[in-house]
Amino acid sequence: MLRLTIAVVVALISLFQATQPASPTTQPGDQTGLGPLDVRGDPAAADQTKERLEKELPEINFNAIPTVDVFEFLADVTKIHIEVDWDVLSKAGVKKELPVTLRVRNLPLRTVIEQLVSDMNAESKERVRYVIDGDHVTISTEKALSRK
C-alpha cells in the first residue's frame, strides 16, 4: 500500500511539473456554482493557476479522510497554494474534519476541487465557492469571497 501511495504521489508530481497548457472550461462568475466565482489578482499568475487547475490527476482515492487533510494533500502534490478559510466555513457549519470519500481517475484538479466544494455545500448554511486569486485558490463562502 505504501508503494502504491508513493507511486501515485510521484506520478502526480511529475504530471504537474509538465508544462502542457490546457484551456479552461469554466468562466469567472459561473452561475452553476461549480466553477470559480471570480478570477482576480495578477492576470499572468491567475492564467498559470487556471492552466494548472486543468492538469489531470491520474488517480485520487480518499476513504473517509478529513477535508482539511485532503486540501493539504492536493496542495502538496500539485504545488498550487490552496487557501481554505476555515474560520468563515466553520461559522457556516463546515467542519475541517468532514470526511471525504472520493475515488476518481484522470480528472482535472479543477473538477476535484469542485466536487469537494459541492460536498462542503451539503454541510454549509451558506453557499461555498472558490476563486482563483492570482497564484492561489481561495475557498470560502460566496458571501465572504464577494467582500474580498
Describe this structure in words.
By secondary structure, the protein is of the alpha/beta class. Helices cover 45% and strands 26% of the residues. The protein is built from six helices and six strands. The chain has a four-stranded mixed β-sheet with strand order 1-5-6-3. A two-stranded antiparallel ribbon has the order 2-4. The longest helix has 16 residues. It is globular. 29% of the residues are buried.
Concise description?
With 148 residues, the chain is α/β, with parallel strands linked by helices.
Topology:
Elements: H1 2-17, E1 39-40, H2 43-53, E2 56-66, H3 67-78, E3 81-84, H4 86-91, E4 99-108, H5 109-123, E5 128-133, E6 136-141, H6 142-147
Parallel strand pairs: 1-5, 3-6
Antiparallel strand pairs: 2-4, 5-6
Summary tags:
148 residues; alpha/beta; Phage tail protein beta-alpha-beta fold; 4-stranded mixed beta sheet; two-stranded antiparallel ribbon; 45% helix; globular
> How many structural domains can be distinguished in the coordinates?
1
Strand content: 25-35%
Unreliable stretches: 1-32
Shape: globular
Helix content: 40-55%
SSE ordering: HEHEHEHEHEEH
Total number of helical segments? 6
Average of per-residue pLDDT values: 83
Main β-sheet, spatial strand arrangement: 1-5-6-3
Radius of gyration: 15 Å
End-to-end C-alpha gap: 42 Å
Structural class designation: alpha/beta
Oligomer type: single chain
- The CATH architecture would be 3-Layer(bab) Sandwich
Number of strands: 6
CATH class: Alpha Beta
